[in-house]
Design goal:
Strand order of the largest sheet: 3-4-5-6-7-8-9
Largest sheet: 7 strands, mixed
Helix content: 25-40%
Number of strands: 14
CATH class of the largest domain: Alpha Beta
Number of helices: 7
Radius of gyration: 18 Å
CATH superfamily of the largest domain: Fructose-1,6-Bisphosphatase, subunit A, domain 1
Shape: globular
Number of domains: 2
Oligomer: single chain
Distance between the termini: 67 Å
Low-confidence stretches: none
Length: 267
């Protein structure tokens, strides 16, 4: 008679499960407030809004992460970083797509990445409206609702659907608009949907063939970039270039897309 043994999960995979569970709960809270959003103020510019739901979502996420993993460090969008001594860290975006949320548009996400000794090792992004959960562990692949996902394999850049986003600063937007005049004719089409985290996850599962954006923060891309990379996409983050660029794409079009978007540095 054989005795079944439970699979032992790696520490990073356990953090993925925590991130997914906490992000799922936060997404439920955010979804309950869709259509009832109230602005609490602005940040970098008058168009960079924060709502009361952003603030409460992050409070809830922080509280739950510390309950499950005492001694964690947490870096979030809305509040100052807090530091623990466990070696575990979290990078939190309580609502990615706040302007969409404010207007009731259906592209809103919650993003949580986990770090061990400073390195991102796991993450989860939840589509607030759809309830879809994207997650990954470094070296262990990426998943959507627990099912393995993989990036697309477009024939070339002219067949690639590309996602992007824009800065809040008007001068930067003007330069980014100039960049579009070079990228748009070269690809199948461009989509701008307002959540970098979801765009990266859509690269991971093949709904987009590539994504680029400048001037986004670590909490915008930390989880999504890992998910895209674990799904087979090529990913370049701002610390690897001097143009503050986040770029993710299927291997077949990464170089061509990179040449197009690196040709101008709208800083």
């Amino acid at each position: 008679m054989t005795v079944a043994t439970a699979k032992v999960l790696s520490p990073a995979r356990q953090l993925e499960l925590v991130a997914a569970d906490v992000a799922r709960a936060a997404a439920r809270y955010v979804r309950e407030h869709l259509g009832r959003a109230a602005a609490a103020g602005t940040k970098s510019t008058p168009t960079d809004v924060v709502t009361h739901t952003d603030l409460e979502s992050e409070r809830r996420i922080r509280s739950e992460l510390l309950l499950r993993c005492p001694g964690s460090s947490i870096e979030g969008e809305e509040f100052d970083a807090q530091y623990g001594d466990s070696g575990i860290g979290w990078i939190v975006d309580p609502i990615d797509g706040t302007v969409n949320f404010l207007y009731g548009l259906p592209v809103v996400s919650v993003s949580i990445a986990a770090t061990l000794n400073g390195d991102v090792v796991a993450g989860a992004v939840v589509d607030v409206l759809q309830g879809e959960i994207f997650s990954a562990t470094v070296g262990e692949g990426a998943r959507s609702d627990g099912v393995d996902i993989f990036c697309s394999a477009p024939a070339g850049i002219d067949q690639a659907l590309v996602g992007t986003g824009f800065a809040y600063d008007a001068d930067l937007r003007a330069r980014e608009a100039d960049l579009l005049t070079r990228v748009l004719p070269a690809c199948r089409d461009i989509r701008c949907m307002g959540s970098a985290a979801l765009n990266l996850c859509w690269v991971a599962c093949g709904r987009l063939d590539g994504f680029f954006e400048r001037h986004i923060k670590t909490y915008d891309y930390a989880a999504g970039a890992l998910i895209a990379a674990e799904a087979g996409a090529v990913v370049e983050l701002p610390d690897a270039n001097d143009t503050d660029l986040t770029l993710a794409a299927a291997p077949q079009v990464f170089d061509d897309l990179g040449l197009l978007v690196r040709g101008s540095n709208p800083r």
